[in-house]
From TrEMBL:
The chain crosses the membrane at residues 6-28. Residues 413-432 are annotated as: Disordered. The gene is Vigan.06G101700. It comes from Vigna angularis var. angularis. GO terms for molecular function: ATP binding; protein serine/threonine kinase activity. This is Protein kinase domain-containing protein.
Amino acid sequence: MREESIGIVIGVSIGVVIGLVLAIFAFFCHRYHRKRSQIGNSSSRRAATIPIRAHGADSCTILSDSTLGPESPIKSGRYGLPFWLEGFKKSSNMLPASGLPEYAYKDLQKATHNFTTVIGQGAFGPVYKAQMSTGETVAVKVLATNSKQGEKEFHTEVMLLGRLHHRNLVNLVGYCAEKGQHMLVYVYMSNGSLASHLYGSDVNEALCWDLRVNIALDVAKGLEYLHDGAVPPVIHRDIKSSNILLDQSMRARQVADFGLSREEMVDKHAAIRGTFGYLDPEYISSGTFTKKSDVYSFGVLLFEIIAGRNPQQGLMEYVELAAMNIEGKVGWEEIVDSHLQGNFHVKELSEVAAVAYKCINRAPNKRPSMRDIVQVLTRILKSRHHGNHHKNSLSATDEVFIDPDQLETMISVTDHRREESKDNPATEVYDE
Ligand SMILES: Nc1ncnc2c1ncn2[C@@H]1O[C@H](COP(=O)(O)OP(=O)(O)OP(=O)(O)O)[C@@H](O)[C@H]1O
């Protein structure tokens, strides 16, 4: 009898334990399915609200991997957002059409040490480096409080920028509209602006030729996406070397800033916008800003990359002189950046300069499209990798082709130097 009751107790206990295990298992299965369907919903919402043409160049891959760079949010969380963003999202404030999270002012204030970590100053206001408590680093652009922009315009612009995703754009990852302040939160670009590299004083850190052409192609791809991949198409309006930022792999991305316009901007009465020296002369005379005006600015940028000189330093006068020389068969070598110390590919130089010269043609319809430019630059780089180009004879002794692996090594050396400077608080700089 006693043995029987012990058997019953053991049986019941085993039953209860099995029941409990099954219940816990069922609970987790249910949660897992709910989470998956939430993520699914959120990504289909994003897909529906970021209209990218299927036939736009590189569009599909770009859209899906645009925020997956090493310096970008990676994992998806509850709202289809990266986990690290969720902690900073104000409870229910999400711009429905852009899917961008709204950051709380106090979190950004804390992450920027009360707005003291300035890394740059743009026309819209200062830019700060922000170290989030999750360990991620972002750049916070604070729009000047004297801006006439109202709440509605700000949200419209954020929605416009939020739908743009490309690996060669500095992606907007959030915004803040609180305490009368308007802020944009961007992926942080650890290698600073192209301008800072072109005009830095250290000759040893000058950008090598190969990297310059890679950067040119990156910028061209970003612009091609804006012109032919985004729907509706977008005109950048402010292509210049300080707007091109470099990530930790020295890949170039352009700042997708406020004021990006839709397809075409015709406003004869509005003040001329843009940066002196990069502006399409046709726009200045007609007041009409078109994709070909961006192409003109891109041509100026290409010459800037070649010459290491900006329009304010007489770049275009140099270009015109060199172009005249070409008829006398002198060539573009004369304007090449002296920081390169003769280390460049002669054939690549003449090909890149030829594209640049077409871009700055006075007649907009004679300028190539960004798609054409991407094709030409891609072909130049392809033939480099096939070893068809010869370096300038001046550097015959140290002829070095940089393949992607070598590039990685160079970058990690640079990163190492940066890490060293970070370890030493006395030399800490924010605008690396
Ligand atoms: N995402 C970012 N990561 C790292 N640094 C940045 C980032 N965004 C901006 N900066 C820094 O801040 C500087 C100012 O940027 P911003 O885009 O506001 O102005 P700008 O491009 O120099 O001029 P403008 O406002 O006339 O276009 C940049 O040159 C760069 O050094």
